[in-house]
């Protein structure tokens, strides 16, 4: 497979140490793991439930395991991974708070990305239209959305604080997964997607 | 009977027999001084001998995995859905070896063979063989065929157990292990089913403690019962409901104890068919090999420590309605492999076919299997594209 990475994955890969153990929750077609295996000699596993994506992972030579995140991660041992990654899945799981704790039980570090519900367009959508916000990042109706636990950057940081989780790095991107200087001025308002690199305190 | 051989079939095949005169010491301590293994091959072994695939058969399987023996055959080999040109195990690229295991009744030395020491049929005197004995004999066949390292060893059910055994017994002799609808050991429930089947055979008055050949009888009723029970455990409740429901053979109740429901006549048919082709002592022996299989027992019952010996990559596949070897059993294998930091991919395939699903042409199953075998070809530098 070609190793041109999606921009959010390019940011994430910088935070993964060479030759480390990685677990990718909701690994899609295995682009990130495939890249990390080829370029950083990482030994990784990915969890996925979409049948076509699982086949794609196998085709890409990725260690994919069919496992639903909502069924828990109790089959993974404490401290068995260096980094546990979850991109764009925090908002779709049944209990994001418990999953975040599980990620840091299994991994020394965790990297999560999620859409920011505090993005200015989302705020204005609700304010002006009085309806649940929809956008390119959030293209669903309120009744059929898989995004059942939307949060803002601030919500996430409060959760980290309550759970004694230390934020090592964070960055924000627009909906094209670009980091732009203007976003840094007011990330909670201008950032559409958040990327957090966290560890236990 | 095929009018013409389908293009995706390996075509007409002829089994070969290999004689071994080097004694084989079995797990039980008993020794087989000499023995035959009957096998078939499909495709061509390449020059670097890097494209060989071993197929391990399940309880009632044999060496005839693909193609036809003659134009009069009603059905192709037992795994023809997965082996052939352009299929998951693509014979345009791979050299496939499939054998009948020791103790079998399809040509390899087993209870129906003549014991060279007595000049009589072995019968119940044939030693109980274990999965590791099969694997050892398979490795000897590989030696004869000039295969130092298999590109993959593949098997479903009891075949999957042989694959697991290969990965720890000869770790340097296989690059990939494909373990389908299998388990790291039998559960008490599995063993119980096997025991009921064995008792059905043993209690048949025609069994004569296994010496039925000398008495010129066959314990047909016992074998039939054993197969009916076994067959039940291969199907799912859903599959049976869909296939038979409560349909009656004659459309009405007859108030008799003769088979009235379609499901009853189906079971009778399966049992009848099996009892005429399979040997009762072989059935007893194969179920024992299943019961005894527990590779982790040699490692303090630690499956992770056991599978740490392996050096190959793994594909593990299970099926949602398989209750004989449920997905949770495959997941035990997967978890142990992850803990041992081995390369493994795992898929649980949605299917209504129960344990039998591993023999069925289920699109998602075939897709995953094909994708994995493509990777096997790439990693083993096997040339040729899937046709």
Give structural notes.
The complex is a heterodimer of chains A (201) and B (387). Chain A has 8 helices and 7 strands; from the N terminus they run H-E-H-E-H-E-E-H-E-H-H-E-H-H-E. Chain A is an alpha/beta fold and 201 residues long. Chain A has a single domain, classed as Vaccinia Virus protein VP39 (Rossmann fold), CATH 3.40.50. Chain A has a 7-stranded mixed beta sheet, with helices on both faces. Chain B is α/β, with parallel strands linked by helices. Helices cover 33% and strands 15% of the residues of chain B. Chain B is built from 10 helices and 14 strands. In chain B, the strands form 4 sheets. In chain B, strands 1-4-8-5-11-12-13-14 form an 8-stranded mixed beta sheet, sandwiched between helices. Chain B has a two-stranded antiparallel ribbon with strand order 2-3. Chain B has a two-stranded parallel ribbon with strand order 6-7. In chain B, helix 1 packs across helix 2 and helix 3 packs antiparallel against helix 7 (280-292). The model of chain B has no long low-confidence stretch (mean pLDDT 95). Classes of the chains: A alpha/beta (201), B alpha/beta (387). Chain A binds chain B through residues 21, 43, 45, 51, 54-55, 57-59, 61-67, 75-77, 80, and chain B through 315, 331, 334-335, 338-339, 341, 343-348, 350, 364, 367-368, 371-372, 374-375, 378-379.
Average pLDDT of chain B, rounded to a whole number, is 95
Q: Which architecture name of chain A does CATH use?
A: 3-Layer(aba) Sandwich
SS field, number of helical segments of chain A = 8
Q: Count up the helices of chain B.
A: 10
CATH superfamily annotation of chain A? Vaccinia Virus protein VP39
What are the key terms here?
heterodimer, A: about 200 residues, alpha/beta, 7-stranded mixed beta sheet, about 25% strand, B: about 375 residues, 8-stranded mixed beta sheet, globular
């Amino acid at each position: 497979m070609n190793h041109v990475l999606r921009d959010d994955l390019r940011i994430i890969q910088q935070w993964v140490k060479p030759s480390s153990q990685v677990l990718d929750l909701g690994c899609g077609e295995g682009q990130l793991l495939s890249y990390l295996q080829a370029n950083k000699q990482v030994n990784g596993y990915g969890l996925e439930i979409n049948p076509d994506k699982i086949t794609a992972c196998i085709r890409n030579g990725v260690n994919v395991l069919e496992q639903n995140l909502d069924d828990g991660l109790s089959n993974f041992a404490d401290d068995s991974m260096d980094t546990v990654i979850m991109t764009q899945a925090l908002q779709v799981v049944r209990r994001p708070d418990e999953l975040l704790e599980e990620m840091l039980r299994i991994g020394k570090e965790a990297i999560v990305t999620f859409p920011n519900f505090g993005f200015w367009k989302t705020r204005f959508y609700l304010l002006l239209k009085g309806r649940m916000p929809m956008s390119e990042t959030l293209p669903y109706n309120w009744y059929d959305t898989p995004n059942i636990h939307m949060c803002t950057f601030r919500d996430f940081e409060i959760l980290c604080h309550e759970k004694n989780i230390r934020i090592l790095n964070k960055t924000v991107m627009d909906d094209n997964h670009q980091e732009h200087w203007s976003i840094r001025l007011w990330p909670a308002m201008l950032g559409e997607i958040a990327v957090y690199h966290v560890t236990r305190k | 009977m095929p009018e013409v051989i389908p293009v995706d079939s390996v075509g007409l095949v002829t089994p070969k027999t290999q004689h071994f005169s080097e004694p084989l010491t079995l797990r039980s301590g008993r020794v087989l001084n000499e023995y035959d293994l009957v096998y078939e091959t499909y495709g061509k072994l390449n020059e670097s001998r890097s494209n060989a695939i071993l197929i391990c058969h399940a309880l009632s399987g044999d060496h005839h995995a693909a193609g036809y023996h003659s134009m009069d055959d009603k059905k192709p080999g037992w795994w023809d859905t997965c082996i052939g040109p352009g299929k998951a195990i693509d014979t345009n690229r791979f050299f496939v070896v499939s054998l009948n295991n020791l103790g079998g009744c399809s040509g390899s030395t087993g209870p129906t063979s003549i014991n060279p020491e007595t000049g009589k049929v072995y019968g119940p005197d044939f030693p109980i063989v274990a999965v590791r004995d099969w694997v050892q004999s398979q490795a000897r066949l590989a030696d004869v065929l000039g295969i130092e390292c298999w590109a993959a060893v593949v098997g479903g059910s009891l075949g999957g157990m042989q694959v697991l055994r290969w990965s720890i017994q000869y770790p340097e002799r296989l690059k990939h292990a494909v373990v389908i609808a299998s388990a790291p050991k039998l559960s008490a429930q599995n063993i119980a089913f096997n025991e009921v089947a064995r008792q059905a055979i043993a209690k048949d008055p025609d069994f004569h403690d296994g010496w039925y050949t000398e008495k010129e009888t066959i314990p047909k009723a016992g074998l039939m019962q054993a197969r009916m029970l076994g067959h039940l455990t291969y199907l799912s409740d859903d599959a049976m409901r869909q296939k038979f429901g409560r349909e009656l053979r004659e459309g009405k109740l007859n108030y008799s104890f003769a088979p009235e429901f379609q499901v009853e006549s189906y079971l009778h048919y399966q049992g009848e068919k099996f009892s005429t082709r399979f040997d009762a002592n072989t059935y007893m022996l194969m179920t024992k090999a299943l019961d005894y299989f527990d590779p982790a027992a040699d490692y303090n019952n630690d499956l992770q420590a056991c599978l740490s010996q392996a050096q190959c990559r793994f594909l593990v596949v299970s099926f949602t309605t398989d209750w004989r070897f449920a997905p949770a059993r495959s997941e035990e294998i997967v978890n142990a492999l992850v803990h041992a930091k081995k390369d493994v991919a795992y898929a649980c395939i949605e299917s209504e076919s129960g344990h039998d699903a591993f023999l069925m042409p289920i699109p998602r199953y075939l897709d995953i299997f094909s994708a994995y075998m493509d990777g096997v070809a790439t990693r083993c530098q096997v040339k040729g594209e899937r046709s």
